Amino acid sequence: NAGVTQTPKFQVLKTGQSMTLQCAQDMNHNSMYWYRQDPGMGLRLIYYSASEGTTDKGEVPNGYNVSRLNKREFSLRLESAAPSQTSVYFCASSEILAFIETQYFGPGTRLLVL
Amino acid sequence: AQSVTQLGSHVSVSEGALVLLRCNYSSSVPPYLFWYVQYPNQGLQLLLKYTSAATLVKGINGFEAEFKKSETSFHLTKPSAHMSDAAEYFCAVTNNNDMRFGAGTRLTVKP
User: Fold this and answer.
1) CA distances (Å), B13 to each of A27, A99, B73, B81, in order?
2) How many CB atoms lie within 10 A of CB B11?
3) Which residue of A has its CA nearest to B95?
4) Which chain B residues contact residue A92 at CB under 8 A?
5) Of A57, A46, A51, nearest to A31 (Cα)?
6) I want to staple B102 with a disulfide (CB 3.0 to 4.6 A). Which of A31, B4, B17, B46 is the partner?
7) In degrees rounded to 5, what are phi and psi of residue B82?
8) In this complex, is the C-beta atom of A12 within 8 Å of any C-beta atom belonging to chain B?
9) Beta-carbon pairs below 8 A across chains A and B
10) Choosing among A23, A27, A37, A89, which should be mutated to test the B contact, i.e. which has the most B CBs within 10 A?
11) Contact at 8 Å (CB) between A61 and A47?
């Protein structure tokens, strides 16, 4: 059981380049999330997907797009990277037991935009 | 909207001393509260969660947290710090796919 996996682990981009961050989970969870983590700001939600085929904006969606490819995979795309998108990106999936949602996180992708 | 505030971005304790990390929440509905730990260059790992079943919640690695509605608090404690506890700790509150995190508290443990 690998849990939540993310690729790549590190990436350097030039301003204006595009890239896709990949996330997969093998826990059969319905909901998946993308967060960014910046110093002193905790984690902020970019997009989430409550179930296969649905996606919704979070707190900071501008400059990003997502695709829920199937139940396992949820990708995050930067169409035209900007230095402000330099951050650590975390993917998470969640289970709901007795109406309580618990999120499980991947190891993160460190992105530097020059 | 719900939110959490962590008091103190850095906390330093000596090995063997009490650990107290503070978290206050704001929520218009009964909250579900969480503490996560993040070790360097790793993702977040769930420490414990409050689900209204009991106000004192025990988690992994000897940590526990007490939900106090009157104080809107969910402080994290550990009686005796260990060097391996050095990490960043995040408090979070959730309601229907909307999880909000605090800014984090970095715990340093001195020998």
Assistant:
1) 37, 37, 21, 7
2) 18
3) A101
4) 44
5) A51
6) B4
7) -120, 150
8) no
9) 52
10) A37
11) yes
Chain B residue numbers with beta carbons less than 8 Å from the beta carbon of A25 are none
CA B7 → CA A13, B4, B40, B73, B104, distances in Å? 35, 10, 21, 11, 9
B32: left (phi over 0), alpha (psi -120 to 50) or beta: beta
Q: In angstroms, how far is CA A25 from the centroid of its own chain?
A: 12
Nearest chain B Cα distance for residue A80, angstroms: 26
Contacts of B94 in chain A (CB under 8 A): 101, 103
**pLDDT digit string (tens) for chain B, length 111 residues:** 788 999 999 999 999 999 999 999 998 777 889 999 999 888 899 999 888 778 899 998 999 999 999 999 999 999 999 999 999 999 999 876 678 899 999 999 999
What is the amino acid identity at position B45?
Q
> Quick one: B53 exposed, middle or buried, by C-beta within 10 A (0-12, 13-18, 19+)?
exposed
